[in-house]
Fold each of these.
Amino acid sequence: MTPHDTHEEPAAAKAAPGGGTPLLEVRNLEVTYARTPGSPAVPAVRGVDLRLEAGQKLGIAGESGCGKSTLALALLRLLPSTAKLSGEILLDGEDIRTMSWGRLRAVRWAGASVVFQGAMHSLNAVHRIGDQIAEPILLHGRATPAAARKRAGELLEQVGLPAARVQAYPHELSGGQRQRVMIAMALACDPRLVIADEPTTALDVMIQAQILRLIEGLVADQDLGLIMISHDLAVLSDTCDRLAVMYAGRVVEEGPAKAVHAHAAHPYGRALSSAFPRIGDLASRRAPRGLPGDPPDPAAVPDGCAFHPRCPVALDVCATQDQVLRVAGPGRRAACVRVGDDEGGAGAGDGAAVAREGAGGAASEGVSETTGSGS
Amino acid sequence: MTVHETTDGAAGQGGAAPRSARALARARRLHALARFWRQYRSHRGGVFGLAVLVVIALLALAAPLLAGEESRSVTDATGGALEEPSGEFLLGTDQFGRDVLALLLWGTRVSLMVGLLAAFLSVAIGALVGITAGHFKGWYATVVMRITDWFLVMPTLVLAIALSTVMARSLWTTILAIGVTTWPTTARLVRAQTLAVESRPYIERARALGGGHGHIMARHVLPNVMPLVLAQTTLVISLAILTEATLAFLGLGDPTVVSWGGLLQDAREAGAVSSGNWWYITPPGLAIALVALAFTLCGRAIESVLNPKLGVSR
Amino acid sequence: MSGAETGAVRGGGAADRAPDGAAHGARDLGVLAPDGAGDGAPPLLSAEQVKVVFPGRRGDREARAVDGVDLDVRPGEIVALVGESGCGKTTLARSLLGLVTPTSGRVTFDGKPLEYASRALKAYRRRAQLVLQDPSGSLNPRHTVYEAVAEGLRIHGYAGDEQEAVAGALSRAGLRPPERFFLRHPHELSGGQRQRVVIAGALVLEPELIVADEPVASLDASVRGEILALLLRLRDELGLSALIVTHDLGLAWNIADRVAVMYLGRIVETGEVEQVLTAPRHPYTRALLSVLPESETEPVILTGEPPDPSRVPSGCRFHARCPVLASGEAERAGVADACRTRELPVLPGSGPAAVACHWAEAVERAAG
């Protein structure tokens, strides 16, 4: 079978529950950067389709350099001017890409907001946090200063901090508390879509659990759409409804979060999901699993399937033939030549598979392990 | 280069790199230099400053050829006193009949030498004080920084005048006076940069490897403050040249050598200001301003190439 | 109490610790042998009643960052020191390397107490190495890979062939062929490669012990496993001991032999990884395990953040956040008062699994 006979659109339509206009729809988004003025443009995002309903949580997973953060910034046109966008980014049916600046400003506050990683640097050290939360409300909400301050206090309570903390300066807060403040700021103008870029990276497990619980609660209460970006598939599958795994600027796997994490169809998805072990799983005891090699340089993406040089189960054809997303089960798609050959990757693991030296062997071992045992 | 899959033990034998490591290192350094030059070139002021400096440096080197030894001598003067510029004396003559242009050329040497040496001395003291004060915290840093502050609030010129008055009149006195009075700014800057570098994890790694104070300061702090020091040097040179001229103008320079400041003082004593001998008083003044400007422009350009976000990335 | 004493009681031979894949293979099955391999070996590194107190600034109270810790690392053993940020685990690791002088207690290495004179420390640092969390920060951006790896050799005046030693360390750290990396600068490497360079820099002096502070926390998921596999392989091939400081329990599960859970300056639970992580006894360990994404138990989310080391509560230092005390279970076990008022003893640095919890002890005593 050829990889092109499954077209992308039907699968996308099937993936979205219910009709009507989704909260966010991204069609064939491409982002290219010129690294220095005049140099050839480097693709960072190479054709991504996404769909998100209100109240839904979408996780985007991938290594650094896979384009996931660029994608997040592109959704609100927060990229530097050297970046070129093409495709469509429809928020409530309105294309953000072609929007006027005035409208975009309105959307950035009231329509969608971003929670960045590293709350330490995103807060201004010389202003009280209450004023920082109230600032967008004052700028856009036409509220009186007193009302805005009151609202800031309410928002802090909403994210689990005492309202009295409006008087605090960022340095008086701990890392977890600062991340809460960042979330309060993102909620200040009642957005419909929240994009969280690695919201819990660098936080301890306990604080991470607190923040994830908070985000989940807010999404459920306020019927927000959430896009959460992380390299930790376990965290995403725990929090999100659907998962998209990105590699080299493309979505290589997409589907219901739990299913993707437990039985990834793409070998890259499998490598990511086995990176963080489940405690008690004897197969991972004294057997850490990684993926040899580094993500490709966006300026020199390999021919064929971009993942083939690192793939533990690559076939000869992978070096020449580019792979598009194809149906890999109910509501699932994956961009791997092995998908659709037979169900489950375990059987396909042998045969013409090119086993790689060293830790690659461990990785391929992990692949069959994960697919075999599952949950 | 071949990619061979080696097992652990065997790789140790492959010590000799395919190309000599030193040749590669040299190529790499050249490459870095070329990149520096490419970025430097985009600063037009810096390029102008550099061009002026190259011309002035060449003139200073060629002074004996262009002007000749005898042109400095009062007794061998060929022209009349205070002649206006003419075909023979392009910038006229002084009160002894010497060619002002020739004196100006000779003065270039002294001004540049004093500027460079004094700046070198000043920056060396500043860097030493700054690095040690930043590295050794505690009472040492407190004492040293108090001294730095004391020098910082002392008016540089007054201090330099005081020093040159009590010491023997010579070029070295001038250099010493300038060097000893202008270092506190450098010390403060270098100390701040040292503190930033010292907080980086690689310092702790070096300590855990067993590196002592000397190792950390020489191998880690110094290379990281070097760009700052380099930029600071070029900026201090112009300050040193101005100070040298000022000291000479105030009659505190070495009377036996011809310098731009000395020329200005001679001109003032000869009454050039009141009698309108512009050719005597303007050229040295312009030369001082031009060289100081050129060094400042270069310093600013170097600073912006090397220092855009020093400490954040390379 | 020292490890040698417990070892004598428990038996077991040092030879079991030899870097031998087969020996570890048997342990891989996860069966907790009563005489775990190497339990009897005298510890290579050992902390005895170590306390580190930082003086308070301008009238603040002093901070008891490490407040009485016994911890042993035996030859060829990987010990994970687990805890939240601010629990004192990094300070403890630094004091074990002599980077911080303990306020009281002592650190012994290879049977001899650590001396803090600079010459003695330099000799010690040849044998015990540090790997830091952020590989980008722990490499000087102006040094090449070669210079970074050779730094230790130069500090200690290595007499042999420097280039050969550097190449050997790089290839052992998985950067092959090593010559290709000699002249690169850190910014030209990926995060995983940088961490390999840092590890190579530690390996080049052929140390007996590596102390790694969150060695994979800032790395991507795919690289994480590779670096952990490297640490595990170094133990198997070179017999290297390691103390790994982390907040990541999965890491401990992946590579460690023993785990010590730290809370507010004290170790609250310690033992073999299988035992502590699959059957945790301390409510704090239980809570930490329960909030992991794939945990099967109901998550117990502790409110608030670790309390301040300058205000260590009386009694059990965890009692203010303890879910067992809050739910009244401790009351039922009859230890609630003890939790609030009676301080717990310092746990032994090695030997059988131990827990510092009044409730766990009471429950186990009741169960027989």
Amino acid sequence: MYDSLLAIVKRTKETNTPFWEVVCDEDCNEQGITREASFRSLSVMYRAMKEADSSYQSSWKSASGMVGTEGEKMRVYRAHHQPLTGSFMSLVSERALKSASSNACMKRIVAAPTAGSCGVLPAVLISLQERDALTDEQMVQALFVAGGIGGVIAHRASLSGAQGGCQAEVGAASAMAAGAAVYLAGGDDMRIVQACAIALKSLLGLACDPVAGLVEVPCVKRNVIGAVNALSAADLALAGIDSVIPADEVIDAMGRIGAKLPEEIRETGIGGLAGTPTGVSIRNRLKGGVTS
Amino acid sequence: MWYTKHMVLTDIIGPVMVGPSSSHTAGAARIGKVAYKLLGEAVVCAEIFLHGSFASTARGHGTDRALVAGLLGMRVDDPRIPDSFAIAKERGLSFSFHTIDLGAEHHPNSVKLCLRGENGKELSVIASSVGGARIHVTELDHLAVSFSGDLPTLVIHHIDQPGKIAEVATLLERKNINVASMRLYRASRGGNAVMVFECDQEISKEDISWLAEQEATVRVIYLSQARK
């Protein structure tokens, strides 16, 4: 995978191929597979995202009972009220909640880039497809764009909450979704990269502080901010607004911040929200991790 | 550093998995499945020892159910993972969970599995979930090893003596099987040793039997990637 977004953009210019195809070609080289096989592998992922979205059930509950019903509450609210964020953005929120809570309830999802941040990309992509009547082929191309961005983040920084905090999971997912959204809206390569930079910048420093160490609180709701932030960042980029700090440097900053985050807020379930009186009492209530 | 595999595109957009955690759920299911395949027959008895983070957060992440699901042969995206305890009961797999301290040299997401199969085969495995849904096997039958479980893997326990590597290498060459990685470990000079070959192609049952019959070979374990 590429080690910088600049290198991807350079390659698109040199070969006169679109961003997604540059990422696809690199995948073919690395894995020794054909374009068709590479495209098929991400088609499978997109189909699984849509299945996860449509199979959500409001009766599901997570292991701890802390999450599960949020997606349904949002659906009911949207059906009976005028959401403050409007019809489209509130639907994006609903979808992010559904996918992320499906994950918490041991249902099948696509870890993109991680299980904890699995709601961000489907919320943005499926909602855009539905609204703008985009083809599955375009959606898979958008997934390549997201994957290319994710690959650069993995290379320069991290995609793991334990290494880099939530900025490396929901932050990265948001940057990936922002780039994918710009691609679907017809933005050029530089707009894709700008959206990625703006989205990631806005979530720098985010702690990974899950209550009782479970992928539930605050993970499920954080997927909403990841998705909404992605679309805002995409709009900014499409409006011609640039990030003063180039995307690759933003990613480097994310990596450095992640390395400096104390261990208590890197997926240990000790600090941050997990360390609040309520967080601690929930952890104590759930103690006895081993079943017999 | 703990071993991590080079990431590919489908590690970033993917895998498709049953939640909630790629390391604590999907990785655990993969460990279970690789251990089952290493045993080479249906598991009837499993003693499962959870170490570190696996021990402290197993229930909340479904690590326990994922491990049992893997031992039953389920994939990381099998929707029956949450129901694996009941399915194990139906299929005659008895299991018990314990906690263990394997020591600081082991990754925090590690587990030791002591397995017995339907035909009486026994195997003990230590493996770690090293991030994403990627895993790393570190010990087989009390001998240190190191492999990812992503490729057809040949493990040969033998007595340390000259010619054992050539024996395997010659066979693989004759069968046109390419070796991706090879490691040799021994407990002491002339004592117990183990060779691990990760290959690009599958090795046939006949060749595995032939290897098992050779002088100074104690046991041959083979991890196939072929789908049943």
